[in-house]
Amino acid sequence: MQSLNQLTKRKNPSLALIIGSAPDALVAKDNDLSAFNYRVAINNSWQITSGWDYLVYPEDLVAERLPPSPLKAHQELIDAAKFVPEQNKLGGFVYAGGTMAFTAAYWTLGALRPDLIAFLGCDMIYTATNGETNHFYGHGTSDPLRADITLQSLEAKSVRFLAMANSLNCAVVNLSKLPQSRLVFPRAELDEMSQPEVCKSFLDRQTITLNASRIESALSAEKELGYMVPSGRYWEHLEGLDESKLKQIDNLWLQALQAT
Known about the structure:
It is built from nine helices and six strands; from the N terminus they run αβαβββαααβαβααα. The chain is of the alpha/beta class and 260 residues long. The model is unreliable at 1-10 and 133-140 (pLDDT under 50).
């Protein structure tokens, strides 16, 4: 893991907010988001706030669901041509998990290099609150819960992202108030994001929860297995992927998160 002293030398830490599609993502609509240097929307969540800066979306998102042109000067669309290279630099889709919450996270980490990434509406818990609504816009497909060889353990993929962010001196928090989450990140309050030492404080706490030797074991197992699909379209190469071996790597990542 890299030295934590680097953060103390930075005069202006940068914060990024990733906004998902769960009902509590609507917190972004009615609250001041100025503490964040970057506001990254996923798929349909650009509809929540006009203050988004980047929209990360998959190839199969229909054009009608994209924001209308022209975009504001600070806004940019991030498609596969932009997010695939960034995710490949940090291990690729098979190991990172093939769902947009993680894809947006790895793009944010790799392309923007913030000092803190906060998640909102990305818990991947899809219990409908009123029998019909499991997304802020109504009922939606629970993409992370589909049968997919890269998503056998959302928690393990969450640990992996936490470790990769930590290696780049980036803290990761979850702003959700839901009682459960598939994300293992520490919980935080929105108003904490404006505090001067918030990045270093959470990075210090995060580092304590990670076991460096077990992280090295997981990364070594990934390298030995060699499951890299440069195009990002891992579903076109399923015949070459071993489910049991990926599960073993997931278990290594789960072991990398220490009890506190």
